[in-house]
Amino acid sequence: MGSVITKIEFQKKNKARVNIYMDEDYAFACDAQLVYIHNITKGRVMDKESLENIVNEDNYIKGKTCALHFLERSFKSTKQVIDKLTMKEFDDKTIDRVMDFLGQYDFIDDSRFIKLYIKEKIGSCGKNKIKFALLKKFLPKELINEELNKITNEQLVETALKLGNKKMETLSKSEKDKSKLYKKTADYLARTGYDYELIRKVMDEIARDDKDDDFVQEVSLPKGESYEETSEEDYIKLYELASKRYNILIKSEPLKIKIYKKLCDYLLRRGFRWEQIKKVLRNLINGVEDE
User: Fold this and answer.
1) For residue 249, is it left (φ>0), alpha (ψ between -120 and 50) or beta?
2) pLDDT tens column, 216-246
3) Measured between alpha carbons, how far is 144 from 130 in angstroms, rounded to an integer?
């Protein structure tokens, strides 16, 4: 026995899709073109199961096309693709089918994505910056840590040393004050995502090559050690810095997620590690909201 189509309404956020109601109840959403192709009109009696099958297949084809188009320019994480399809208002059943297809044909693979990303970036970035970038793409933290832990300290030192020497060479063309030259180079390495201790080791090596073994000890290197190694005094300084920046951002940015991102970027550029930043921002933002 058929059901009566009692209502057809365009979606508020996407005028290319409509919601179909049968026997006064919401039945499904579909592309507006299907309404015309299959002559779906209010008051018409139609077999609900057959119509659902048509709509589900159409949604699947359009969802698959949307996902593949999204993946054309660059590899995306599973979460990014799901969010994209959700934003386009595809239903959960369609999203599940699309994700199964993408996984089956290797269009998405979070583990491979992480490996390729690290391989591409490790020659120009430290582990902290790479980790933060991958976390922003909503990739599994466990997979990120697993792959980053495969990078040896020797690899990091070798890369950071090359970057540091190259930066020193560039800066020395305009900066003649050796103290400032070393400080700017150390700050650059911190912004690039290297730990405090590694930066110290690299700057010591640069100083030895520069025939000035003791000079780097006089340079104030950025504080970028892990949170567990951070003293209470340093933590308070970081919290105060984040708090001041937070008070500036809330004057022009209403969205908490954007404030959080801008604060993270701001603190990363100053050499702090993601673990430190996450702890501070969680305490800062939660504290503000509780007031």
Assistant:
1) alpha
2) 454 555 554 433 445 556 667 787 788 888 8
3) 9
What is the number of residues in the chain? 291
Q: Which two tokens stand for residue 46?
A: 């139609």
3-state class of 230 per DSSP? coil
Nearest to 125, CA basis, from 76, 160, 74: 160
DSSP 227: G
Is pTM beyond 0.85 here?
no
- Encoding tokens for residue 264? 């993270």
- Cα(195)–Cα(190) distance, rounded to whole angstroms? 7
List, as one string, the DSSP characters of 49-110. HHHHHHHHHHHHHHHHHHHHHHHSSS---HHHHHHHHHHTT--HHHHHHHHHHHHHTTS--H
